[in-house]
C-alpha cells in the first residue's frame, strides 16, 4: 500500500509541475508572424512550416504578414506579445544585421526573445549576364581590378543579403564594385539582363529559372558548401576568395519567458516538419539546407551571425536611420 501511495504522489507531482500552458497546448490558434510581404522566400518557408507543424500539433497554425521598416514592425509585434507560445516570429538574416544597421531598435533582440528552432539555411547565387566575358569568380576579380570604376552590382535594399554578400566579397577579394540599390530583386535582375549592372548576389528563388533558361549565367554559390541545387557550381571560397561565406537562414523565435516545455514542444514539431516531403521539395526550389536544430543552436548561430555582419557593416560604413 505504501508503494502504491508513493507512486500516486509521484505521478500527481509530475502533473502539477507541468506548466498549464503546455498541458493543453495548443488549445487555440498559433500564429507565426512573418515580417515581410506575402509571396517572398521567407513567407513561403513560413507557410510550409505552418502547414506541417499544424499536422503535428493538432491545432491551427496561421501566418500573419507584418512587413515594414526592414522587418522591425513585425519583429516588435512579437516582442510585446504574451509569452504563451501562441505568437511566434519567423526570424531571418535581417534580425542579425538590424542591430548594426540601426542606431536604436524598439526591442532588444536578445532580452525580448527566446530561440525556438533553427529551421533552415540558404544561400545566394553569383550571377552575370550570359553575354558577359566573366565566367568565373577569378574573372570577376580580374575585371574589377583591371577597371575599379567599371563594374557594379545590384542589390534589393540596404542591409539585405544581396547587399551584404557583395560587401563581404569586396572586402575579402580586395576589389571595388559600385553598389546599385533597387526596390526588389525583379528590377535589379531586369537591369542585369539589360547590361546596366554587371553582377548580382541574388537568391535562388529569384534566379533559378533564368539560369536554367540560359538568360543568366551562374558562376558560384555563397554558401559554405556546394549545393545540391547547383552541384556544378563552386562556392565563392573555393573559387578564389578564402573564408567567404554569406548565408541566409530561417529560425523560429518566441517572446521571452515563454514556458520551456512549450518551447520544447514547438522545437520538436518544427524538427518533424522539415523532414516532410513538402520541405524536401521546397529545399530544392529555394536552395535550402534543412537544419531543424534545437534552441541552443539557434541562439549560438544568431550570436555568431550578429558579430560577423557587425564587422562587415562597420567596415563598409553602412547605416540606416
Automatic annotation (TrEMBL):
SUPFAM superfamilies: Periplasmic binding protein-like II. The keyword Transmembrane helix does not apply. The lineage of its organism: Bacteria, Pseudomonadati, Pseudomonadota, Alphaproteobacteria, Hyphomicrobiales. InterPro entries: BUG, Bug_dom1. It comes from Bradyrhizobium ivorense. Residues 1-23 form the signal peptide. Belongs to the UPF0065 (bug) family. This is Tripartite tricarboxylate transporter family receptor. PANTHER family: BLR1237 PROTEIN, TRICARBOXYLATE-BINDING PROTEIN.
Amino acid at each position: 500500500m505504501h508503494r502504491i501511495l508513493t507512486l500516486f504522489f509521484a505521478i500527481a507531482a509530475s502533473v502539477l509541475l507541468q506548466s498549464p500552458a503546455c498541458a493543453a497546448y495548443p488549445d487555440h490558434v498559433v500564429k507565426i508572424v512573418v515580417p515581410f510581404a506575402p509571396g517572398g522566400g521567407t513567407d513561403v518557408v513560413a507557410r510550409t512550416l505552418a502547414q506541417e507543424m499544424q499536422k503535428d500539433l493538432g491545432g491551427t497554425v496561421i501566418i500573419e504578414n507584418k512587413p515594414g521598416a526592414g522587418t522591425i514592425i513585425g519583429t516588435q509585434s512579437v516582442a510585446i506579445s504574451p509569452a504563451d507560445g501562441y505568437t511566434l516570429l519567423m526570424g531571418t538574416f535581417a534580425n542579425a544585421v538590424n542591430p548594426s544597421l540601426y542606431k536604436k531598435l524598439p526591442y532588444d533582440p536578445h532580452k525580448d526573445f527566446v530561440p525556438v528552432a533553427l529551421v533552415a539555411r540558404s544561400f545566394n547565387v553569383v550571377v552575370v549576364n550570359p553575354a558577359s566575358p566573366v565566367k568565373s569568380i577569378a574573372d570577376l576579380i580580374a575585371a574589377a581590378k583591371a577597371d575599379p570604376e567599371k563594374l557594379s552590382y545590384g542589390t534589393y535594399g540596404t542591409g539585405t543579403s544581396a547587399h551584404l554578400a557583395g560587401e563581404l566579397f569586396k572586402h575579402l577579394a580586395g576589389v571595388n564594385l559600385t553598389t546599385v540599390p533597387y526596390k526588389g530583386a525583379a528590377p535589379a535582375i531586369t537591369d542585369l539582363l539589360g547590361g546596366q549592372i554587371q553582377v548580382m548576389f541574388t537568391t535562388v528563388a529569384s534566379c533559378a529559372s533564368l539560369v536554367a533558361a540560359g538568360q543568366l549565367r551562374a558562376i558560384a554559390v555563397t554558401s559554405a558548401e556546394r549545393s545540391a541545387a547547383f552541384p556544378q557550381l563552386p562556392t565563392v571560397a573555393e573559387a578564389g576568395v578564402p573564408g567567404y561565406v554569406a548565408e541566409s537562414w530561417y529560425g523560429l523565435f518566441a517572446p521571452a519567458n515563454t514556458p520551456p516545455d512549450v518551447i520544447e514542444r514547438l522545437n520538436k514539431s518544427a524538427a518533424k516538419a522539415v523532414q516532410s516531403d513538402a520541405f524536401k521539395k521546397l529545399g530544392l526550389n529555394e536552395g535550402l539546407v534543412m537544419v531543424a536544430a534545437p534552441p541552443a543552436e539557434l541562439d549560438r548561430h544568431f550570436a555568431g551571425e550578429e558579430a560577423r555582419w557587425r564587422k562587415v557593416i562597420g567596415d563598409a560604413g553602412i547605416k540606416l536611420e
